[in-house]
Each structure stands twice: as structure tokens, then as C-alpha cells.
């Protein structure tokens, strides 16, 4: 009796099988979306489209070199405080006190220079030190007292608002700044605004730490899943402390940059920057490295928002609500997209 094996061209019933189709290597069809990496660089394409749109729509105001330079340089302050928001979000913490920290830094910078007459560089160190102290207090609230970060940092914002009023007596400081300090803020080494150089340097340092060092990998792990990170031996508490202290220092640095750029210390000048900072951070989570907060994505998002706001402001100069409308809409869209992406990944796993 003959036994048929699996490689026999006949079935057990003696009927021949049809010849199988010749094997062809699978070819992957690459769509235009794939080639252009729209999922990663959509923000850059949006910037290009918005620039082209506004240059055609309002060329006499938007399409000028003066407006372009102002648009690029004017985002240094927003950029620095957006980095503060990003670093806290990476750690899994909402630090809602960054704008209030910035406001304290502005008032302290003004008082120490214009009233006390302190050396501007010592003034900068004092402001950054205050930001670090605020970060330590936030870390104690979140890690030691176990208070929800949103509630804890929101309460801290109210306390800092009172501190700002006490420091500045509710007044903006317009005169008395060191001329060299103000001149440096308005300088353009190599044709690049000095305040923009500060943003670039800070962003480069943060990018390197987050993307090229173990600390960055541990911080991402702690923010994504703190319990799993703890079981893996990651010191989540220390990383949270480091992130909140860094966030506080960056927020204070944003206050120094603003004071240096405008040559004055506006009372509560940091408060309007909270919404732009978080809009940029959440929109940035859809760019470059979609699905997670990242430094380069935040920088791209800053200019997406800036170009949209600037163009609409120039087109509708009598509509002061345009800025809040654009920033709020972008924040809602970015957060909605993040929630949708998270649910989609959860359902597919």
C-alpha cells in the first residue's frame, strides 16, 4: 500500500491538485502619504500652506520681511515656556503653575534690577533659583503629599499670583533696567535674535537628554506607565522631582527672556502664556514622534499656532478674540486626536 505524503501532487482521493500559482514576492505599495510622512510632518506642511495662503490673502502685511522676522523671533518666549509644559507632560504630570512661575520671575527680575540695582546676571540666577524652588514645592505636593497634579499645581498658581502681587505691588516696572541687559535682549548675533538663540540652545539640550540618554528613556517610561516603571527598577519619584524642577526653571527662564526682550516687567505678564504652551505641547505630540510628547514636535507646533494666529490678526486687526479662538481650538483638536489615537492603539492590542 502506497502512502501519500504532504508533498505528493495527488490527494488521498487520487485526484490531481491544480498547480499552485507561481510564488511572487510581495510588493509593498507605498502611498503618497507614506512617502511624504504626513503622519509625522503634517505640521510642517500646514505651516507651508498657511504661509502661502496668507501671502496671497494679505501680501501687503503678512508677506513682508519685517513680519517674517517678527514672527520667527516672537516665539522665543512661548517656545521656552512650552518646553516647560512638555517636560512635565513627559513625566506624566500637568504642571499648571508654569505661567504663574513665569509671572513671579518677571516681577522679581524687575524688582532686583530696577529697585535694588542688582547685577543683571545675579538677577538671572536669582530668578532661575526661584523657579527651581517652586519646582521643589510642586514635587513635594505631587510625590509626598500625593495630591493630584492638576489640583496641586492649580493651587500653587493661586499662591504664586499672590506672591507676584506682593513682589510687584500690583504694578508693572517700565524703567530702571540695566542697559546692557536690554541691549542683549534686542541683539542679533549672526543675524539671529538672541532670545531665539536661547530657545534653540534650551531645546537642543532637552532633546539630547530625552532622546540620547538613559535618563530620557526612564522619564518616558515613568510618564507612560509609572507602576510598570517602578517594577522595572526605575526611580519614578526622583524622575518626577527632576521633571518638575526643570519645568520650574524653564518657566522662570521664560520670564527672564520676556523681560530681556521687552525691556520691562509687565505685572502678571506670564499668565497669557499658559494656553499657548499647552496647545503647542499637545499639538506637538502629533508631530515628529506621533503619540508622545517630544521637543521637536513642540517646536513645530509653536510655529503652526503662531502662523495661524499672526495671519488672522493681520487680516482681522479689530478682532482681539482671534488669538484665544485659534489656541483653544487647536488645543481641543490636539487633545481629541491624542485620545482617539490612544483608544485606537488600545483596541488593536
TrEMBL record:
Annotated protein name in UniProt: Sugar ABC transporter permease
Membrane topology: Multi-pass membrane protein
GO molecular function, one term: transmembrane transporter activity
Keyword Transmembrane part of the UniProt annotation: yes
Keywords: Cell membrane, Membrane, Transmembrane, Transmembrane helix
Sequence ranges of Polar residues compositional bias: 1-11
Pfam family, any one: BPD_transp_2
Main location: membrane
Listed transmembrane segments: 32-58, 70-89, 121-143, 150-168, 190-210, 239-258, 270-286, 293-313, 325-342
Keyword Protease: no
Subcellular location: Cell membrane
UniProt xrefs under InterPro entries: ABC_transp_permease
One GO cellular component term noted in the UniProt record for this chain: plasma membrane
Region feature Disordered, mapped onto this chain: 1-26
Higher taxonomy: Bacteria, Bacillati, Actinomycetota, Actinomycetes, Mycobacteriales
Amino acid at each position: 500500500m502506497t502512502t501519500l505524503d504532504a508533498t505528493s501532487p495527488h490527494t488521498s482521493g487520487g485526484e490531481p491538485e491544480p498547480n499552485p500559482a507561481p510564488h511572487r514576492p510581495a510588493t509593498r505599495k507605498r502611498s503618497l502619504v507614506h512617502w511624504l510622512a504626513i503622519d509625522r510632518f503634517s505640521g510642517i506642511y500646514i505651516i507651508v500652506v498657511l504661509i502661502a495662503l496668507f501671502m496671497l490673502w494679505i501680501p501687503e502685511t503678512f508677506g513682508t520681511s519685517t513680519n517674517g522676522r517678527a514672527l520667527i523671533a516672537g516665539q522665543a518666549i512661548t517656545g521656552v515656556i512650552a518646553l516647560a509644559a512638555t517636560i512635565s507632560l513627559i513625566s506624566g504630570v500637568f504642571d499648571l503653575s508654569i505661567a504663574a512661575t513665569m509671572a513671579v520671575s518677571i516681577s522679581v527680575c524687575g524688582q532686583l534690577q530696577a529697585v535694588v540695582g542688582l547685577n543683571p546676571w545675579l538677577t538671572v540666577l536669582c530668578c532661575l533659583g526661584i523657579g527651581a524652588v517652586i519646582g521643589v514645592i510642586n514635587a513635594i505636593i505631587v510625590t509626598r503629599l500625593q495630591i493630584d497634579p492638576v489640583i496641586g499645581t492649580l493651587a500653587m498658581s493661586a499662591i504664586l499670583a499672590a506672591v507676584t502681587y506682593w513682589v510687584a505691588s500690583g504694578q508693572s516696572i517700565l524703567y530702571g533696567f540695566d542697559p546692557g541687559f536690554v541691549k542683549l535682549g534686542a541683539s542679533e548675533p549672526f543675524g539671529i535674535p538672541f532670545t531665539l538663540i536661547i530657545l534653540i540652545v534650551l531645546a537642543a539640550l532637552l532633546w539630547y537628554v530625552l532622546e540620547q540618554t538613559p535618563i530620557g528613556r526612564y522619564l518616558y517610561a515613568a510618564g507612560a506607565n509609572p507602576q510598570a516603571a517602578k517594577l522595572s527598577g526605575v526611580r519614578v519619584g526622583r524622575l518626577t522631582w527632576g521633571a518638575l524642577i526643570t519645568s520650574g526653571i524653564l518657566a522662570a527662564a521664560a520670564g527672564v527672556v520676556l523681560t530681556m526682550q521687552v525691556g520691562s516687567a509687565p505685572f502678571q505678564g506670564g499668565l497669557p502664556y499658559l494656553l499657548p504652551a499647552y496647545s503647542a505641547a499637545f499639538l506637538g505630540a502629533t508631530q515628529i514622534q506621533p503619540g508622545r510628547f517630544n521637543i521637536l514636535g513642540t517646536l513645530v507646533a509653536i510655529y503652526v499656532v503662531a502662523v495661524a494666529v499672526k495671519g488672522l490678526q493681520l487680516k482681522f486687526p479689530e478682532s482681539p478674540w482671534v488669538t484665544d479662538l485659534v489656541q483653544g481650538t487647536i488645543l481641543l483638536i490636539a487633545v481629541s486626536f491624542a485620545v482617539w489615537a490612544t483608544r485606537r492603539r488600545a483596541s488593536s492590542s
